[in-house]
Amino acid sequence: MPDPAPPADTLLDAIRAVVGDRGLLTGRADTAAYTEDWRRLYQGRTAAVVRPGSTQELAEIVRLCAAAGTPIVPQGGNTSMVGGAVPNEDGSEIVVSLARLNRIRDLDPIDMTMTVEAGVTLKAAQLAAADRGCLLPLSISSEGTAQIGGVLAVNAGGNNTVRHGNARDLVLGLEVVLPDGTIWNGLRRLRKDNTGYCLRQLFVGSEGTLGIITAAVLKLVPQPKEIEAALCAVQTPEAALDLFTRFQAHDPAAISAFELMSGLGLSFVLKHIPGATLPLETAAPFTVLVELATPRPQAGLRAMLEQVLERALEDGTVADAVIAESEAQRASLWKLREEHSEGQKREGASVKNDVSVPVSQVPAFIRKATAACEALIPGVRVVPFGHMGDGNIHFNLEQPVDADPAWFLAQDHAIMDAVNDVVREFDGSFSAEHGIGRLKPYMMPDWRGGAELDLMQRIKAAIDPGGIMNPGKVLPPRP
Ligand code: MLT
Ligand code: ZN
After folding, report:
1. Which intervals hold domain FAD-binding PCMH-type (predicted)?
2. Does 9-100 match 348-442 in CATH topology?
3. Are 434 and 80 in contact (CB under 8 A)?
């Protein structure tokens, strides 16, 4: 077990000797931003935040911490929704920020790959790919802040999973610093490589509990030649599903995003986010943001979009719709979707359920889970939204108006358990894209118990026998 005592001054001196003064932050004022998560659910403490400038420096730091038995919390953009990147409260853990590992090492438009360091933001990686005529097909609401290392560590999903899969589907190679300070250089950019266990996939989604990702080779795809986006008002989630199946029937490969928003979630965005406006006549109970994209020129996406929407407007499946006429309009439609978390945060306390069910079951799931939560907490405001096209709904609950936020947050386990009971009925998952972090390890025995959890515990013990990598995250304590 890692040492629960604060790191000794001798360790901090040794770390300073590796990274210099600019690579080591100590003192409450300088470390505060690294000890609290985006949702402000956790306020940790740390004696130091280490900011290595290279993989070699990081390896040396990990070696020092391993020798001292000092636990490490790796941190990227600190945008975790489940407290996966903040230290605990006893001050024994050191935070390692990857922010200075921020180079794009290589981008090859023939191989269609880019080699990116962990501290590059997802947005910067997307822009670098676009500069060379390629697309990095991963997009999440926090992409301006989230860093590649964290995005891979949690196997982020986001808006384009319906077309391009999750982060893990885009990873060809990885460089990782292991818990004993060894550097594993697996930065291969091969499309085929059947050489034993697929180690890179072990680290993707392990949330920093097995090692620290320092760089990755990511797959790119051709940039779209046509993109069309539309906002569609619908009365029910069933109508949204109906619309989805119509686009699927025309050209499933063209659907790059199919996002659902509830009227309430949208109203929080319109109320709290400057510049957010609704380009539809009336606010509906649900709204869909659909995006179609293709790398083929003159593929006729606009005609397809108009045809599907015309028919859906005629038969009442869609109540109102608007098609983006410019890049600026497309961005303003996306703003309505991407600011959902911020809108909810400003409205009050919320309990998040990042769940997935089969796409066909999304409407039934929303109905049942809504009824369960309203019965549990009268006045609770149900805000389901998210990636309907891949079955991942953020079934978030906003505190009742005028309720005490602390009282509401104290109900989080009861709420999450009630939602998860419904998720289970639909053979879904209790964590679709945010990971387990510090919030959900208690759910693991129930959902992944038996051979699956045992195997995870054995892998953890084999790779990190000292238990120094991101303790308390993902896996529950062993009985
Ligand atoms: C998003 O898709 O905007 C985030 O993953 C959602 C959340 O706040 O639950
Ligand atoms: Zn999401």
Report:
1. 42-223
2. no
3. yes
